UniProtKB/TrEMBL annotation, chain A:
<dbReference type="InterPro" id="IPR016166">
    <property type="entry name" value="FAD-bd_PCMH"/>
</dbReference>
<dbReference type="InterPro" id="IPR002346">
    <property type="entry name" value="Mopterin_DH_FAD-bd"/>
</dbReference>
<feature type="domain" description="FAD-binding PCMH-type">
    <location>
        <begin position="1"/>
        <end position="177"/>
    </location>
</feature>
<dbReference type="GO" id="GO:0016491">
    <property type="term" value="F:oxidoreductase activity"/>
</dbReference>
<dbReference type="InterPro" id="IPR036318">
    <property type="entry name" value="FAD-bd_PCMH-like_sf"/>
</dbReference>
<dbReference type="InterPro" id="IPR005107">
    <property type="entry name" value="CO_DH_flav_C"/>
</dbReference>
<dbReference type="Pfam" id="PF00941">
    <property type="entry name" value="FAD_binding_5"/>
</dbReference>
<dbReference type="InterPro" id="IPR051312">
    <property type="entry name" value="Diverse_Substr_Oxidored"/>
</dbReference>
<dbReference type="InterPro" id="IPR036683">
    <property type="entry name" value="CO_DH_flav_C_dom_sf"/>
</dbReference>
<dbReference type="Pfam" id="PF03450">
    <property type="entry name" value="CO_deh_flav_C"/>
</dbReference>
<keyword id="KW-0274">FAD</keyword>
<dbReference type="GO" id="GO:0071949">
    <property type="term" value="F:FAD binding"/>
</dbReference>
<keyword id="KW-0285">Flavoprotein</keyword>
<feature type="region of interest" description="Disordered">
    <location>
        <begin position="240"/>
        <end position="263"/>
    </location>
</feature>
<keyword id="KW-0560">Oxidoreductase</keyword>
<dbReference type="InterPro" id="IPR016167">
    <property type="entry name" value="FAD-bd_PCMH_sub1"/>
</dbReference>
<protein>
    <submittedName>
        <fullName>Carbon-monoxide dehydrogenase medium subunit</fullName>
    </submittedName>
</protein>
């Protein structure tokens, strides 16, 4: 990698990190696992003046059970998330989606918080964050605040993080009993980003769908919550022929999918409908926790 | 979610492989030796070009044209010169007087248009990525930073991006001379008679998309000089050819230029080239008197390593009512890109003799037009012309089967050359020396479970299963062992096709082999050691193979076109034979016998009918001492051989592929893949297996994944591996492989070559399977790569081309 030159800081506490970030100017970037940022540096598509490497900041890494929610530290690697018994028990959708991120090498370096802060709609985790109503904890030299996932993803690669703010952790609400989950990822090669991805959570009682959460990956400049599907699926009999398919027909509503080498918008809309159906069927059939 | 490895099975595999490495007697040829070069290659403890560090070495970075077609109106390098660490900044104008023109060694016709090809553009750029300036600096970072300070103004010209439009009157021109480089014709038999009132005529056009060879090791060059002599390290397949061509291009006398291909991490044809960067690094080192290094980035390489394929193939077949082929007519447009590089125009010619495939016919007619466009030049890429030909004929055989209403394997059986008919001279005038298509096919069908899969296909069709099953066949052959020099001469190629070897027995009985082949992943050190061990009766471990350095290997034609074993390996055999004959003279003298009475086997010379013997090691030491040799005998146990083949070799095989197509999403998944290849006798089955697996993967990549895409301004869109999708092991199925062994009759080893077979065979097998799955939906073609979106759109529109 031959990037343009930059200053490099490696704080060891979060206090130090936010102070360094505050003083490093608007063109500073926070570096965690580097798997989104380094490619941009390598291709000289980004010219940050300073990198603040939070990889060794104490307290940012790890998963803990906080009663009504699971807390995932921002620098927890994807691999740690996938293997966490707490995640697998209480928020299996996170584990299912994270397991599809790129390849094992990337999952051992890339971080949970980094994937969200990068706000790439083609990333697998932003849609999951939306579907599960995660809450993001951020910190700056001015103090701490929380941002609900629904308000975090503002535009393509643009989040609600203000200059000087660092994502420190994420609260994943526990959904309780009766839920099934699935992440349906459609991609051209195992390492490729999702052409379209569907994160689905379904709560049933005696075969009746009580509640549905659907987040869509790569169907717009931000991850998308498929509200129309959620509405349409509520109350249907999951086993009834065609019921979930009819609900999934709403999946492309309100989306604005991109055109790229792998898919044009109309194809992505079609995929969203087909994959949402498959995700709902699978989520209906699979119960948490993962074993 | 975590993969469970079967530790016991892995341990067993390791034990089996360890057993392969055990020293021991017996035949080395045919033994699945693990490659002796791999330990250093896979650990990187070796001399990759980019690993080379020389005292005072400077680093070069190239500024590349962002325009597909433009005039350079202003160049200002002054700001870049003031940047940190910058030693020199050069534009094309600075080299204009000395850089010459990059060579094309294959003017296929007398009137082939070969435009001047300056290594660095001086007045006009003709493709995105063309070098327009460079920075020489103390490190790579300084060089890359300073590139951004170079100012170049361009006056845009209209780019030529489509071959058909390029040939239309009145459009923009890539070169003043026009957009047609050549038209080359070839014919056998009476094509008009074949098509006249033919009961069946099928006419199809196939698109061979542009591909980017993706060698694991990017290109890298290190150039140095002592003021008189020059040494060039390059990640190249062709150190010998490169030395000659660089001497002719730069004016550095050949004897003052040493070219070294150290360990090279793959090429697939992309390093069969004389590149602008190699020439420019030599010019820079000549100008500055300092050693310089350049290593490309992957994105730079995607733009500027020569591309492959990119042909538009119109193929017509005339057949009898029972499907017997009367004649085949091919009209080809081949995209040359912006310039002709080393063998650019010759690539389609290598396919010209293969459109008949394994089939008999009365007439054949081939026309190819080479077309200039404002894109990266094309050149050899694994298979070079033959994958394109095989694809067209194997796709067409399936179409013919549908037209006639018979199983696609049956249509092939009706037309192929029977085993009893070999040697067989084809309509193209090539004599296939040996082959057994029936045997390979029967074996493949058995491994595949053909009938069972057909039954499942019917069942899925009846059930209207959203996931349909298709079966694809490829009964391929290829011409390998490039090449008989006289044939190359008749095709106007600029050089011969022989290969050279030196074999020398050292005083202690160890053996050094110098080969003119230039391995870049093929395992020649292992395979050549096996050949020599058997021939001279020495232990495998006692053989060293030297290659890739023109100072130690003075003569060679290098590695490409599945030629190394079939041509270079035979040179090794001949050199060994000469060494043995010399040793026999010495042995006879020492044992006081007539040479005619001395037999040689397993490393020992024996006097027939006596118990007297001498080992080749004893003879080596006696020859070294030279105390007691026959009168007039030169004290040397070494020999050279240059082998020029009289014919090509013709590997063949049958590949069968089952693909599941999800008609809802357009996704395809290879369900099973069977390859039965006949590459003649096998020196090392493990190496052959590796070549077959890699080759199949590369052919599947063309069928499903890879395509170099330019936008309407001529910008390459697939500059990274996120856009240009090279499949990994995770994207490919397990391959079931087997072999039949019909020895070549044209060389003493009976070998045919295996470097390209998988790539040539697999692409049509996969696409045939996809089309087969979708025929009930009215689909008769899907353009490559058969991406999910393309399959989906084809399904929606029916027929062939997606809207």
């Amino acid at each position: 990698m031959i990037p343009a030159s930059f200053d490099y800081f490696r704080p060891s506490t979060i206090e130090e990190a936010v102070d360094v970030l505050a003083g490093a100017g608007e063109e500073a970037k926070v570096l965690a696992g580097g798997h989104s940022l380094l490619p941009l540096l390598r291709l000289r598509l980004a010219y940050p003046t300073a990198l603040i490497d939070v990889g060794r900041v104490a307290g940012l890494r790890g998963v803990s059970d906080r009663g009504d929610h699971v807390h995932i530290g921002a620098t927890t690697t994807h691999d740690e998330v996938v293997r966490s018994p707490i995640v697998r028990e209480h928020c299996p959708l996170v584990a299912l989606a994270t397991a599809t991120v790129a390849d094992p090498a990337v999952r051992h370096r890339g971080t949970f918080g980094g994937s969200l802060a990068h706000a790439d709609p083609a990333g697998d985790l932003p849609a999951v964050a939306l579907a599960l109503d995660m809450v993001l904890e951020v910190r700056s030299s001015a103090g701490e605040r929380t941002i609900p996932a629904a308000g975090f993803f503002l535009d393509y690669l643009e989040s609600a993080l203000a200059p000087g703010e660092i994502l420190t952790g994420v609260r994943v609400p526990k959904l309780g009993p009766g839920w099934g989950f699935h992440y349906e990822k459609f991609h051209r090669t195992a390492q490729a980003w999702a052409t379209v991805g569907v994160a689905a959570a379904v709560r049933q009682t005696n075969g009746t769908v009580e509640e549905v959460r659907v987040g869509l990956t790569n169907m717009g400049p931000t991850p998308v919550r498929a509200a129309a599907v959620e509405e349409a699926a509520r109350g249907v009999e999951a086993g009834q022929n065609g019921a979930l398919r009819r609900a999934a027909e709403q999946a492309a509503e309100g989306t604005d999918p991109p055109a790229d080498l792998h898919a044009q918008p109309d194809y992505r809309m079609h995929l969203a409908r087909v994959l949402t159906h498959r995700a709902l069927v699978s989520a209906s059939a699979h119960r948490s926790p993962l074993t | 979610m975590t993969e469970q490895l079967d530790a016991g099975a892995v341990a067993q595999q390791i034990r089996e492989h360890d057993a392969l490495d055990a020293p021991g007697g017996g035949s080395e040829v045919g033994r699945a030796r693990r490659r002796k070069e791999d330990a250093r290659l896979v650990t990187g403890r070796t001399q990759w070009t980019d690993n080379i560090q020389l005292p005072g070495m400077l680093h070069v970075a190239f500024l590349r044209s962002p325009m597909a077609h433009a005039r350079i109106t202003r160049v200002d390098t002054s700001a870049a010169r003031t940047r940190r660490g910058v030693v020199g900044v050069f534009s094309g104008q600075d080299f204009a007087g000395e850089q010459g023109s990059l060579p094309c060694a294959w003017p296929v016709t007398a009137d082939t248009v070969i435009p001047e090809h300056p290594p660095m553009a001086v007045t006009t750029v003709r493709y995105v990525g063309e070098a327009v300036a460079c920075v020489v600096a103390v490190d790579r970072y300084a060089a890359a930073d300073a590139l951004e300070a170079i100012e170049i103004d361009y006056e845009p010209l209209e780019p030529v991006l489509d071959m058909t439009e390029a040939l239309a009157e009145g459009g923009p021109k890539v070169h003043e001379a026009g957009n047609e480089s050549f038209t080359w014709k070839f014919a056998g038999g009476d094509i008009e008679a074949a098509f006249h009132e033919a009961p069946v005529v099928i006419d199809r056009t196939y698109v061979q998309q542009r591909l980017i060879p993706s060698a694991m090791e990017p290109r890298a060059v290190v150039a140095q000089t002592d003021g008189d002599h020059f040494t060039l390290h390059s990640s190249t397949q062709i150190p010998h050819v490169l030395r000659v061509m660089l001497a002719l291009t730069t004016g550095i006398p050949e004897h003052k230029l040493r070219v070294i291909a150290p360990d090279v991490g793959g090429g697939f044809g992309s390093k069969l080239q004389v590149t602008a960067e190699e020439v420019l690094c030599l010019l820079i080192t000549r100008r500055l008197g300092k050693p310089v290094k350049w290593t490309e980035s992957r994105s730079e390489g995607n733009m500027t390593v020569h591309h492959g394929r990119d042909q538009l193939q119109n193929i017509r077949v005339a057949a009898d009512a029972d499907g017997r082929i009367r004649g085949v007519q091919v009209k080809l447009l081949a995209d040359m890109g912006a310039y002709l590089m080393l063998v650019t125009p010759g690539v389609p010619l290598l396919g010209a003799f293969m459109y008949n495939g394994v089939y008999k016919m009365d007439a054949y007619d081939f026309t190819c037009t080479g077309v200039f466009t404002n894109k990266m030049p094309t050149d050899a890429y694994r298979g070079a012309g033959r994958p394109e030909a095989t694809y067209a004929i194997e796709r067409l055989m399936d179409e013919l089967a549908v037209e006639i209403g018979v199983d696609p394997m049956e249509i092939r059986r009706r037309n192929w050359i029977q085993h009893s008919e070999f040697p067989y001279t084809t309509i193209c005038g090539l004599t296939y020396d040996s082959g057994n298509y029936e045997a390979a096919t029967d074996r493949a069908l058995a491994l595949f479970g053909y009938d069972k899969l057909r039954a499942e296909q019917s069942d899925r069709r009846e059930r209207h299963d959203p996931v349909q099953l298709g079966i694809g066949i490829s009964t391929y052959t290829e011409m390998c062992g490039l090449a008989p020099s006289r044939v190359l001469g008749s095709l106007s190629y600029g050089a011969g096709g022989w290969e050279h070897a030196d074999v020398r027995v050292l005083p202690t009985g160890k053996v050094e082999v110098v080969t003119g082949t230039s391995p870049h992943g093929q395992g020649h050190e292992t395979a050549w050691s096996q050949i020599v061990a058997d021939s001279l009766g020495v232990p495998f471990e006692d053989v060293a193979v030297l290659h890739g350095d023109t100072a130690t290997s003075h003569k060679g034609m290098d590695t490409y076109g599945s030629r190394s074993l079939v041509v270079g390996g035979i040179a090794v055999v001949h050199a060994c034979d000469k060494v043995k004959e010399k040793a026999r003279q010495v042995a006879a003298h020492l044992m006081e016998a007539s040479p005619d009475d001395v037999e040689f086997s397993e490393g020992r010379f024996r006097v027939r009918g006596t118990g007297t013997s001498q080992t080749i090691q004893e003879i080596a030491l006696a020859t070294f001492a030279a105390h007691n040799l026959p009168d007039g005998f030169e004290p040397r146990l070494d020999a050279s051989a240059t082998f020029d083949p009289e014919n090509f070799s013709f590997p063949h095989g049958t590949h069968l592929c089952a693909v599941e197509v999800d008609t809802e999403t357009g996704a395809t998944a290879i369900r099973s893949y069977v390859a039965v290849d006949d590459v003649g006798n096998v020196i090392n089955p493990l190496i052959v297996e590796g070549q077959v697996h890699g080759g199949i993967a590369q052919g599947i990549a063309q069928a499903l994944f890879e395509e170099a895409v330019y936008d309407s301004d001529g910008n390459l869109l697939t500059t990274t591996m996120a856009d240009y999708l090279v499949p990994s092991a995770a994207d490919l199925p397990n391959f079931t492989t087997d072999r039949t062994e019909t020895p070549a009759t044209t060389n003493p080893l009976g070998v045919k070559g295996v470097g390209e077979a998988g790539t040539i065979a697999s692409t049509p097998a996969v696409v045939n399977a996809i089309v087969d799955a979708l025929r009930p939906h009215g689909v008769h073609d899907v353009r490559m790569p058969c991406t999910p979106e393309r399959v989906w759109r084809t399904l929606r529109t029916g027929g062939g081309e997606p809207a």
